[in-house]
Amino acid sequence: MTTAYVYDFTEGSREQAGLLGGKGANLAEMTRLGLPVPPGFTVGTNACRAFLRTGSVPEGLDGEIAAHLKRLEQLTGRRLGQADDPLLVSVRSGARFSMPGMMDTILDVGLNDASVIGLAKSTGRERFAWDSYRRLVQMYGATVLGIDAARFEAVLTRRRRQVGAGDDLGLDARQLAETVREFQAIIHAATGREFPQDPREQLRRAVVAVFESWNGERAAVYRRREHIAADLGTAVNIQVMVFGNLGPDSGSGVAFTRDPGTGRPGVYGDYLADAQGEDVVSGVRDALALDELEHLDPDSYARLRAHLRLLEAHYRDLCDVEFTIERGRLWVLQTRVGKRTPEAAFRIACALVDEGMITWPEALSRVNAEQLDHLTFPRFDADPDTPILAHGVPASPGAAVGAVVFDVAEAVRRAEAGEHVVLVRHETSPDDLPGMIAAEAVLTGRGGKTSHAAVVARGMGKVCVCGAAELDIDPEHHRFTTADGIVIEEGTVVSVDGTAGTVHLGALPLVASPVTRYLETGTRTPGIVDAVARCLEQADEIRRMDVLANADTPEDAARARRYGARGIGLCRTEHMFLGARRRLVEDMILARTDAERDATLAALLPLQREDFTRILAAMDGLPVTIRLIDPPLHEFLPDHTESAVRIARAQALGQPPNPRDLRLHEAGELLHEENPMLGLRGVRLALAVPGLIATQVRAVAEAVVARVRAGGDPRAEIMIPLVATEAELRIVRPEVERVLAEVRARTGIDVDCPIGTMIELPRAALTAGEIARSADFFSFGTNDLTQTTWGLSRDDAEASFLAAYLEQGILSVSPFETIDRDGVGRLVRIGVDQGRATTPNLRIGVCGEHAGDPDSIHFFHDCGVDYVSCSPYRLPGARLEAARAAIAARHNRAEPAPTEPQPD
Ligand code: ADP
Ligand code: MG
Ligand code: MG
To answer: What radius of gyration do the chain's Cα atoms show?
Structure first.
């Protein structure tokens, strides 16, 4: 038989999921393995694609289906629609990727007013026959004819009520027969046509309905969320029906080869006696634990266990199956590599390695950073079905409890007094940082997953729910009002669930994650902690890229080390100018003479030296890349309007304004920039404020000296930000070298810091070949590179159009979350290639937010980047993904390894 579209279960295999869909390919695979699969065949996804393209069933498909159906009829000795002993089939959707419950399946096709009698006779069960017919007419009406399912449900509910029955089992054959006639009347009224009595018409239209369900709303939404392509189409499986509802020696169930919740080995699942498969899944009746089957039907149970063992060994992974027992005979209706929780994923991966079933690279390719993330955040212990105050974007997962506060000062004050607080803001800005640090969680009314609040909170491992637009936040009166009108005053305790994106009233109980405890303390316990630890150790062996941390304080540096950092790839110095030292920076900005400025710089020097010394100590023996000061000066000045108000108030009271206020106000005016992101910052600042670089470099060099004298092994590196042209480096670099040489001469200690640059402007990437002549290393600042490549500022974009872009599909993911491979990524590639053309072994890293993002990490690996540097909390995930990237790259390389036999 020449086939274009239709394949018997005996023809296919699991490699053919693209054509046969996951369900069809696995049904074929199980058939090949000799498992008891009811016979059937698969209409390929190519037929669906043709249908979706043209709007009609492709030529020849009907003929192929008829031919395969004939074979089924010969095999079973029954015919579709045969009046005495009819063949019934199911028509099941099944796409390339599992989309559970998203598309349609129609059971019991082949029944009509005559064959239902035949089925009753051949099985000896009248009630069963009418119940099957009832199911067919109902599913056909709702799915194929598109009639509102509620209309059928309403009839059933009314009938159940009439006889006082709790569920459908309370309806007898006569009542079910009447229900069928009512259903048929609904169909006639809605469509003007009778329910088709011709089983071939039923079949044909059911197939079309499955094709069409590909474009159903549910399926489309699911695909978008799971990033499944919209044009794959679904396969359709037509399979001989088996019946789990033929009495107490029949039943249906779902089984897993291991516990998908915890990964523990051992058969696990649900069983429902005297039921069809869909009754188990839909939860209409309470299922039994699978173990019960051992007592009910030991023979089927033993067989099932053997099948599960076979499947797990064959797929070398956790599998789940749907099975049905028809009068003591076991049938397997579906299998797939099963979905699992993050905990189960890690435990199963390790267990399968231990059992010799898979290798470590395979194990690591089955776990990921997202799952690891989930394991590191604390959770609410109780089922959080306490009333929900607000919903928002689950921006940074985890669970936190605290008193609501509305401003930074209050947050800091309460936190210092030992209270846990939740900072609530319309949105956050860098000014809120101290408050965010003080808070257990951040809740905002505006902004999405990459808003300032979200990014910073994730970086700090803080819980964050943002964009809770339904809240009316009123910082002035220190309260917010929920959609239900509940007013929450400052100090009220709430629970913020960053995993679910919800806020609850009161304190839900919390449990610390054992994985976090392990990362913080190294305490290793059996179970999930051991599994995670082993995977991370293996990842460190396998990865090519190094994983460093972004850390600005000695505390962060120490944590980064515990979390597996191989150094600091970005130590930002500007945070060291905040707090009490801010006044010194103000003085520096206000300085009128060189002497004034030198004095303030001299005051800063020892403070900076102390910072660097402690950070170098925490990272002894590992590189610490110190970036010279970057942000625009005006960020260090008080709010411009505030100073204006203070001055005006003084004038109104007839008092002379504070002279410092006046000068700060003036300076603010001078330094005000329409778009500070593009303004006086980075290397430009170094060139504009004489002495600033020298002070910072001196602080670094003297810290190195101090560490060497203390017997340490400091590895400081100096990094110049926001370089656009090699000319800038040609001026700054000698200045840095001069200071290093001076300290060397003065102390006799060899301070030899590599001097590198950030590549964070398109021009820098495009001229990286020249820049490499003056830089010892590159580090891509992908945040700024994304902003400048796209010509948008992150915070503005977040606040205005980014959400709309994502919704309209202009972007599929925020470019601040995952590197935009085609644009920004292209610049990264150019930068890497040009830099290495000048200096072949140029060390190249990435230190933007993207350095902790799994997809971006894979991209950087492929670009040949040497290391990624991310926030300490993202380190474990980055270690894992760097290894996964190396494994995937090995896998994707077309040429087989030399030791492997060549395919013939
Ligand atoms: P889904 O992909 O939503 O799970 P399925 O195609 O697996 O849809 O079918 C829905 C239910 O119907 C499942 O419980 C399945 O086991 C059951 N089912 C499907 N085909 C048959 C059949 N030929 N005999 C008995 N039950 C079936
Ligand atoms: Mg199924
Ligand atoms: Mg930058």
So the answer is: 33
Residue 135 φ/ψ, nearest 5 degrees: -60, -45
Minimal-distance CA residue to ligand 1 atom 16: 277
Find out whether 626 and 716 touch, Cβ atoms under 8 Å. Answer: yes
Q: How far is the CA of 322 from the centre of ligand 2 (A)?
A: 7
Q: Which atom of ligand 1 is nearest to the CA of 244?
A: 25
Return the sign of the alpha-carbon dihedral for residues 665, 668, 669, 670: positive
∠257-263-265 over CA atoms, to 5°?
50
State the Cα–Cα distance between residues 195 and 133, nearest whole angstrom.
12
CA 62: distance to chain centroid? 42
Q: Which atom of ligand 1 is nearest to the CA of 323?
A: 16
pLDDT tens-digit readout, 251-306: 999 899 998 777 888 888 889 999 888 777 655 566 788 989 999 999 999 999 99
Is the confidence at residue 48, as pLDDT, over 60? yes
Q: What is the pLDDT of residues 408-435, one digit of tens each?
A: 999 999 999 999 999 999 988 877 888 9
Is 80 exceeded by the pLDDT of residue 245? yes
452, 504, 665, 850: which one is catalytic? 452
Beta bridge partners of 464: 396, 442
Asked whether 244 and 326 are in contact (CB, 8 A), the reply is: yes
Task: State if residue 242 touches ligand 1 by the CB under 6 angstroms criterion.
Answer: yes
| pLDDT for 571 | 96
| Mode of pairing for the β-strands spanning 493-497 and 399-405 | antiparallel
Q: DSSP for 392-409?
A: -EEEE-SEEEEEEE-SHH
639-659 per-position pLDDT tens digit: 777 778 888 888 888 888 888
Burial of 576: CB neighbours in 10 Å, binned 0-12, 13-18, 19+: buried
Residue 870 gets which letter from DSSP?
Answer: E
Q: Which residue has the tokens 């470590």?
A: 360
C-alpha distance from residue 305 to each of 257, 309, 330, 331, 368 (Å):
8, 6, 11, 13, 30
Name the token pair of 654: 């007839």
**Active site (annotated) includes residue 452:** yes
Q: Residue 866: which of 784, 786, 779 has the closest Cα?
A: 779
Ligand nearest to the CA of 785: 3
d(CA 61, CA 5): 7
Q: CB under 8 Å to 268, separation ≥6 — which residues?
A: 255, 256, 258, 259, 260, 290
Q: Is 666 helix (H, G, I), strand (E, B) or coil?
A: helix
Name the closest-CA residue to atom 6, ligand 1. Answer: 92
- Report the relative pairing of strands 6-8 and 421-425 from DSSP bridges: unpaired
Which atom of ligand 1 sits closest to the CA of residue 40?
A: 23
- The helix/strand count (H/E) of the chain reads as 36, 31
Max CA distance (Å), the chain = 108
Q: With a 6 A CB cut-off, is 40 part of the ligand 1 pocket?
A: no
Burial class (CB in 10 A: 0-12, 13-18, 19+), 481: middle
Q: Alpha-carbon distance 618 to 612, whole Å? A: 10
Q: How far apart are CA 411 and CA 421, in angstroms?
A: 6
Looking up tokens 């194929």 gives 144
Q: Is the pLDDT of residue 71 over 60?
A: yes
| pTM of model > 0.85 | no
Active-site residue flag, 847: yes
CA nearest to 662, candidates 647, 682, 674, 678: 647
Catalytic residue among 847, 850, 858, 861: 847
- 503 pLDDT band, cuts 50/70/90, is very high
CB 707, CB 767: distance < 8 Å: no
CB-proximal residues (5 Å) to ion ligand 2: 334
Assess whether pLDDT exceeds 50 at residue 904. no
Q: For residues 455 and 873, what is the distance between their CA atoms, to the nearest angstrom?
A: 12
Residue 450 has pLDDT above 60, yes or no: no
The DSSP bridge pattern shows strands 265-273 and 288-289 to be antiparallel
The closest alpha carbon to 488, from 410, 404, 392, 400, belongs to 404
CA atoms within a 13 Å half-sphere pointing along the CA-CB vector of 124? 3
